[in-house]
Recover the amino acids of this structure.
């Protein structure tokens, strides 16, 4: 009786907090779960005028079409390669940066640096594409001018099939590492300072402390970020690549999303695009499940 | 669904509006099914969609050149523009020919004009289809394209084309034009409206259209879309007063087209206020052009009326210096006696060079599914050859791949949908 009352009290007290969740729940319900109904068109010969349930059912024919497209394997290979490198860089660079920033003594310098590297995250790729096209230009771009000063031939970053994917990975890391490092910095502050004190007493230097206290301390965050990133294995970054690529780099730069955009959205092939989207979701599910299992097995980390 | 407009059109349309049916039978054919009219077509100036070569007047003068009539002369002029400092600023900061990364598009800086010289009526990377030697075929898979690609490849290798063109889209070319590093490009008819108005307004530089330079031994062909396709206005069948649409159209016709009042022509047409009107159609300049050209020859616009009279006033005003605004320059570029319209109607049409796309309202399913992929193949194969990633002979493999990836099936299906007359 007494216990029940207390639970009731608590619920009443926390009710406003639960209501704060509501907007997020509604958004997820409408845009994530609600739109799932639309996946039926992946199995239809979809005609918009006939509506979601009025079009003919054609089974897996859209998927067969998708996987018999010329270049589809090349596109998948590009997608996986680009997103794997982005994922790896997206964990390593922010972690290293957060560790280094953590060592900076001046509070002001630390805060300013953090803000500066955080800023690119707020710029859209449409804007950045214009900037990168200019600064990466082999003829007039500042990067190639600097490279020229140290005797390196101009590199056509956006027009060369070798350099294009590398440029995509590097610019993406540059854009996102500030934001991600904030997460690791937050994880760093949660490490118990007394651990460092006792390590110092035991005679551990900075490097030993980093290796044995800091890294294990943020490992679970790293694992979480990696697990979440695994879901994006087939997302090479549409807005980035769409704004920077060109026919001359399709061979190494065309990813699933841009490919589907060209043949699906621009030509109003909704069923085919949905089939591609569903395929992506299925692959993401497998990767997330696998990495979650691995994280649990090797790092002892569980989200649920 | 969609309302049948046949009866309200008959009952309410002004005679002038009804006359469109005789003037643009194909456009109306495209909106008529089983004898019933389901929409009102926009009626584009189809002849006007052809490519032109645009060149800056001052660069021609500074290099002591004349407009090129052959592809060789065009390449030579590009060489002058690249190497002879056409803007006279003492720096080597100009390009010979402006090219955009979407080389097979029809807009600013595509190479469709160059391909046309070799008899390839290309328009977009997925157009056009035409009948050649009795069979339906696709523009970009013609053997003659190799000759055009060889020219572009050599120009690229020589540095006459910006080596970075592969990452530059039309909007970046516009900046290059505005900053004065480009003086020659293939473009469509609206060049004096955009983007050449930019340098006209800032530096008084006039850029004008010329017929595309020809290649010796080849019959040139320029491609346009079929008139049956295009924008249309439709009315929902649940609309209570479909005749209101026709009434709006009548009002538009009276204000914009039939009016010979210069002010309302400027307000509603040149300044594009008509776009605020829910229903509007193009002013098909092809219609007025013959009268207009006759008036130029006679040197008097007294016999003209309505739109044609307004055009005459603009063009003459621009030529005698009394009209210098952007609208006057824009209209002049299209309508003067050697403007884009005159080139299309007098040169291209008289030379029998205009080829209209066979693909219109009946679209093969296989084409719908594959045209994105096939278009990509055109873009990549052509770009690879121009920048030297692949040899010229890789063109043959491209043709095979294009046919295998749904191209051949599309052609076969089209033979069935569009039987030869």
């Amino acid at each position: 009786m007494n216990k029940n009352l207390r639970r009731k009290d608590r619920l009443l007290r926390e009710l406003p907090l639960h209501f704060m969740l509501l907007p997020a729940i509604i958004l997820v319900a409408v845009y994530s779960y609600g739109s799932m109904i639309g996946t039926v068109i992946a199995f239809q010969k979809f005609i918009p005028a006939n509506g979601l349930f009025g079009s003919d059912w054609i089974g897996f024919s859209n998927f067969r079409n998708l996987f018999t497209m010329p270049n589809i394997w090349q596109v998948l290979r590009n997608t996986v390669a680009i997103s794997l490198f982005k994922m790896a860089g997206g964990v390593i660079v922010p972690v290293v940066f957060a560790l280094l920033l953590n060592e900076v003594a001046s509070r002001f310098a630390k805060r300013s640096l953090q803000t500066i590297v955080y800023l690119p995250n707020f710029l859209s790729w449409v804007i950045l594409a214009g900037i990168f096209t200019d600064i990466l230009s082999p003829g007039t771009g500042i990067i190639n001018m600097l490279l020229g000063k140290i005797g390196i031939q101009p590199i056509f970053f956006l027009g060369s099939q070798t350099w294009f994917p590398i440029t995509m990975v590097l610019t993406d890391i540059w854009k996102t590492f500030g934001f991600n490092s904030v997460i690791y910095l937050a994880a760093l502050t949660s490490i118990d300072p007394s651990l460092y004190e006792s390590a110092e007493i035991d005679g551990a230097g900075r490097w030993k402390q980093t290796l044995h206290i800091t890294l294990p301390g943020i490992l679970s965050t790293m694992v979480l970020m990696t697990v979440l990133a695994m879901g994006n294995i087939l997302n090479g970054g549409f807005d980035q690549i769409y704004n920077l690529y060109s026919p001359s780099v399709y061979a190494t730069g065309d990813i699933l999303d841009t490919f589907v955009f060209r043949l699906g959205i621009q030509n109003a092939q909704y069923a085919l695009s949905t089939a591609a989207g569903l395929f992506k979701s299925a692959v993401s599910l497998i990767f997330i499940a696998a990495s979650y299992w691995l994280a649990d097995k090797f790092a002892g980390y569980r989200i649920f | 669904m969609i309302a049948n407009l046949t009866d309200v059109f008959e009952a309410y349309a002004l005679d002038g509006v009804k006359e469109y049916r005789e003037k643009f039978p194909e456009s109306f054919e495209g909106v008529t099914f089983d004898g019933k009219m389901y929409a009102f077509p926009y009626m584009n100036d189809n002849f006007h969609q052809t490519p032109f070569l645009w060149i800056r007047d001052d660069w021609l003068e500074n290099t002591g050149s004349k407009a090129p009539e052959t592809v060789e002369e065009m390449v030579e002029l590009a060489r002058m523009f690249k190497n002879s400092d056409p803007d006279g600023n003492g720096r080597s900061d100009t390009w010979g020919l402006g090219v955009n990364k979407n080389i097979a598009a029809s807009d600013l800086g595509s190479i469709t004009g160059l391909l046309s010289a070799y008899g390839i009526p290309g328009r977009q990377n997925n157009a056009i289809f035409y009948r050649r030697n009795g069979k339906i075929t696709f523009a970009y898979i013609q053997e003659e394209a190799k000759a055009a690609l060889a020219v572009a490849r050599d120009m690229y290798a020589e540095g006459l084309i910006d080596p970075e063109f592969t990452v530059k889209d039309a909007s970046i070319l516009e900046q290059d034009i505005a900053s004065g590093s480009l003086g020659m490009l293939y473009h469509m008819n609206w060049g004096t409206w955009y983007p050449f108005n930019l340098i006209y307004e800032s530096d008084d530089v006039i850029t004008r259209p010329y017929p595309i330079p020809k290649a010796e031994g080849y019959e040139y062909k320029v491609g346009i879309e079929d008139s049956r396709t295009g924008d249309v206005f439709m009315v929902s069948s649940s609309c209570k007063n479909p005749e209101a649409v026709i009434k709006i159209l009548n009002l538009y016709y009276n204000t914009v087209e039939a009016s010979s009042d210069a002010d309302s022509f400027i307000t509603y047409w040149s300044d594009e206020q008509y776009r605020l009107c829910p229903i509007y159609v193009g002013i098909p300049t092809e219609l007025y052009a013959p009268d207009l050209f006759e008036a130029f020859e006679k040197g008097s616009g007294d016999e003209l009326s309505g739109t044609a009279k307004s055009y005459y006033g603009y063009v003459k005003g621009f030529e005698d210096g009394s009209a210098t605004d952007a609208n006057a320059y824009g209209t002049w570029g299209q309508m003067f006696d050697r403007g884009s319209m005159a080139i299309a109607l007098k040169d291209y049409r008289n030379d029998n060079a205009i080829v209209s796309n066979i693909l219109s309202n009946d679209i093969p399913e296989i084409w719908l599914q594959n045209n994105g992929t096939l278009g990509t193949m055109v873009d990549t194969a052509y770009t690879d050859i121009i920048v030297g990633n692949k040899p010229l002979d890789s063109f043959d493999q491209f043709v095979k791949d294009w046919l295998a990836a749904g191209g051949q099936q599309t052609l076969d299906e089209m033979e069935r949908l569009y039987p030869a007359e």
Chain A touches chain B through 27 residues (CB under 8 Å).
